[in-house]
Write a structure and sequence with these properties.
567 residues, alpha+beta, BirA Bifunctional Protein, domain 2, YbaK protein, Rossmann fold, nine-stranded mixed beta sheet, five-stranded mixed beta sheet, 14 helices, globular
Length: 567
């Protein structure tokens, strides 16, 4: 393609709102254009990248026996009402058609694929099957930021497996995980795989594929001694057991007017932070639950929700705090709580003696509080967020470090939640009707483009992996000498005949402009032809990922390009 005729050129100005490198380079490089907040148009360069990723994904999934199909972007709301997600998914864009039908723009396709399954899967002989589509989604995000990292409309690969039982699901799940590794390997991007939470998707086991990046919104924990990795919401650690008193002391009430927050409270009482206790009230579906947390940790709402088995979990309002406890936020404690309030304490609270807790009285705290004596011993569970520097629970030796990650893909074992909600059953070989056992597997294709740029760039621009680069070779002609231009034109035609993907920069611009644009666009191989190089019947050869250029003779060029592309 001649760059002089190419639609969408580079831009000198960086978007004012751009913080992420990918946002800056993709927009400046002419890959995408922002139509509105969270809505992007893919220009030819960006569309080429998108198409290559799409092809790789489909090829690798097909190797695992996955069948491709396509489902609509617009869904009847009735399907989402069947699963109960119509009023629970906050990014769901709802509208009414001209005929009065309630509809949604799909943020995901569990409902529609389960509807398909219940219509076409009859018996165990139809199983197992995994269906995939690479389809556009829409999520009505309140905050669309970071360019392609968080958009409202995006292209996503989403696959769904259907099996007879959990053993079958495990096999399908492992096949998809292997396919994902093959996909990311072919694309040329290093991913970390962490244990994660299924969130609004439902189900049980979940793994997240991510790219380490400072602009990533996900926080993950990585052990420095073993291969343990987990999303911070799911990370497990060993807490440091603190030395305790030998004997219980009498519980006493101390004044603490206006002292809210564990650090301020610990300083006021003259005790370490780990001796303080945060007691928070949560609304778990219809029940109020008091959660006790050692002062040096924070509650993981994901772990708490999973432990309680509730669908909805929220901190109660200040008015509800006062109604339940008679006091205000900051002074809640486990002593003298109403009998109908369930109390759950983190494991870090277990075996403590003489600890602090709120007194359920305004401006008051209790010291020397003890289990069983001062209030009934609560339930204990791992409901805390691991802290950086905690000991790894997997190996018991390493320390956990926090890293930011961009989520590239996510796989879930959905189980039977959707099939039970939507009565998607099959007849097993024993003649009984049973719910289909499902898995769900997704890669954000448009976000993946940003992830590649975030992990592969320098201060000049993008460095595309060969497999997904918009072109594999950029041919740059320098100067206006007619003989040089003719030679460059001829070389361009020869490379096209050889099947090489070439972007030919034939513009009437300076060498500086052309070479800077080449670095920004980031095509893997740059070949420069000029009067200086032609004096030696050669070209200047520079791989985008390498610092230095070299001279290659024209007679060897095609052979060298073939070797470069095959490497």
């Amino acid at each position: 393609m001649r760059y002089s005729k190419f639609f969408g050129k580079t831009q000198k100005e960086t978007p004012k709102e751009a913080v992420a490198v990918s946002h800056k380079y993709l927009q400046r490089g002419g890959f995408v254009h922002q139509l509105a907040a969270g809505l992007y148009e893919f220009l030819p360069l960006g569309f080429n990248v998108l198409t290559k990723i799409d092809k790789i994904i489909k090829e690798e999934l097909a190797k695992k026996g996955v069948q491709h199909l396509l489902m609509p972007l617009v869904h009847p709301a009735s399907l989402w009402k069947e699963t109960g997600r119509y009023d629970k998914v906050d990014v769901l864009l709802k509208f009414t058609s001209a005929r009065g039908t309630d509809c949604v723009l799909a943020p995901t396709h569990e409902e529609t694929v389960t509807d398909l399954a219940r219509k076409y899967i009859r018996t165990y002989k139809d199983l197992p099957v995994t269906l995939n589509q690479n389809q556009w989604k829409y999520r009505d995000e309140i905050r669309a930021t970071g360019g392609l990292l968080r958009t409202r409309e995006f292209l996503m690969q989403d696959a769904y497996s259907f099996d007879r039982d959990k053993a079958g699901l495990d096999i399908s799940f492992d096949k998809m995980v292997a396919a994902y590794h093959a996909i990311f390997d072919r694309i040329g991007i290093d991913v970390v795989v962490v244990k994660a939470d299924s969130g609004t998707m439902g189900g049980s086991d979940s793994q997240e594929f991510g790219v380490i990046s400072d602009v990533g919104e996900d926080k993950i924990m990585i052990c420095d001694s073993c291969d343990y990795k987990a999303n911070i919401e799911k990370a497990e650690s060993k807490f440091e057991a603190q030395e305790q008193d030998k004997e219980m002391k009498p519980m006493a009430k101390v004044a603490g007017e206006g002292i809210i927050g564990v650090e301020a409270l610990a300083a006021h009482l003259g005790v370490p932070v780990h001796s303080t206790t945060m007691t928070l009230l949560f609304q778990a579906d219809k029940d109020v639950v008091a959660v006790m947390m050692r002062g040096d940790y924070h509650v993981s709402e994901t772990k708490l929700r999973n432990y309680l088995g509730c669908k909805n979990l929220n901190l109660v309002s200040p008015d509800m705090v006062k109604k339940v406890t008679g006091t205000e936020v900051g002074y809640v404690g486990p002593v003298n709580l109403p009998a109908n309030v369930r109390v759950v304490a983190d494991l870090s609270c277990k075996d403590r003696i003489n600890f602090e807790a709120g007194a359920n009285e305004l401006h008051s705290h209790n010291v020397n509080v003890n289990f069983d004596r001062d209030f009934p011993t609560p339930e204990f569970a791992d409901i805390r967020e691991a802290n950086e520097g905690d000991t790894c629970a997997a190996c018991g030796k390493g320390k956990l470090a926090v890293k930011n990650s961009i989520e590239m893909g996510h796989v879930f074992k959905l189980g039977t939640c959707y099939s039970e909600w939507m009565k998607a059953n099959y007849v097993d070989n024993d003649g009984k009707s049973k719910p289909l056992v499902m898995g769900c597997y997704g890669i954000g294709i448009t976000r993946l483009i940003a992830g590649i740029v975030e992990s592969s760039h320098d201060d000049k621009g993008i460095i595309w992996p060969k497999a997904v680069a918009p072109f594999t070779v950029e041919l740059v002609v320098l100067g206006k000498d007619e003989s040089v231009v003719k030679r460059a034109d001829a070389l361009y035609e020869e490379l096209l005949e050889e099947g090489v993907e070439v972007l030919y920069d034939d513009r009437d611009d300076s060498a500086g402009v052309k070479l800077n644009d080449a670095d920004l666009i980031g095509i893997p191989l740059r070949i420069v032809i000029s009067s200086r190089t032609l004096e030696k019947e050669s070209v200047e050869w520079k791989a985008r990922s390498e610092k230095d250029a070299k001279i290659v003779e024209l007679k060897d060029l095609k052979k060298e390009i073939a070797k470069f592309l095959a490497a």
